[in-house]
Amino acid sequence: MTLSCMCFCLFIWTAAASLATFRATPFVLYAKINGSESMSCECPDHSCQEVFWYRYLERTKSLQFLLYCNSAGREKHGENLTTTRFKGSVSSGQRVVYSLRITGLQEDEIGFYSCMFKTKSIMPVGYYIMPGVNPPTVKPPTVKTKTPKKTCNCKPPSSPKGCEQSVLWPGIGALLLLAITLAGTLYYFSRLPKKCRHRFTKTNQLR
């Protein structure tokens, strides 16, 4: 490895370590054990001729160089890496997009994965891959239902049941008032002296 490549890898290690510390990645991938994941790094123009892929493993707290790829599709893998597991590719159109596909992911490969363009001071945010970890379940939002207040709205005469409560109590009150008045009148006449009642009867007969 040349001195320039070593310096560049040192810069990647510093940047990756800081990113992994803060976990500044919007992409979290919950991969299965022995599963595969694909990642991509997009260059805003055609000046990105070379890209370096790397990862920061969470368990060992170590940075690992994965793959070098140029615009012609030439690859160079890192040390002690199986070339069949890490495969790079490039596609060009309006923008140049470099991709990396990893197969056979294991639990000890949880970490931060990203790339760095050699001729650009651009460092994509990257991916946080978590093999063997189940994605969090989102609880459905709870909807509070309001109990409707019961109101008595009068219905047409054909449906008298609509206002039973509003009519029943005034009717009972009127009947009670009439009963009290009648009982008071009967009690008043029952307390009158017999003579007064006799005179009252004669007077009615003379008339």
From TrEMBL:
Pfam families in UniProt: V-set
Keyword hit for Disulfide bond: yes
GO molecular function annotations of the record: coreceptor activity; MHC class I protein binding
Transmembrane domains' residue ranges: 167-189
UniProt xrefs under SUPFAM superfamilies: Immunoglobulin
Main location: membrane
Gene3D superfamilies: Immunoglobulins
Residues in Immunoglobulin V-set domain copies: 34-120
UniProt membrane topology term: Single-pass type I membrane protein
Subcellular location per the Swiss-Prot or TrEMBL entry: Membrane
InterPro entries the record matches: CD8B, Ig-like_dom_sf, Ig-like_fold, Ig_V-set
GO biological process: adaptive immune response; regulation of immune response
Cleaved signal peptide residues: 1-17
GO cellular component: cell surface; membrane
Keywords, comma-separated and alphabetical: Adaptive immunity, Disulfide bond, Glycoprotein, Immunity, Immunoglobulin domain, Membrane, Signal, Transmembrane, Transmembrane helix
Name under which the protein is recorded: Uncharacterized protein cd8b
Gene this chain is encoded by: cd8b
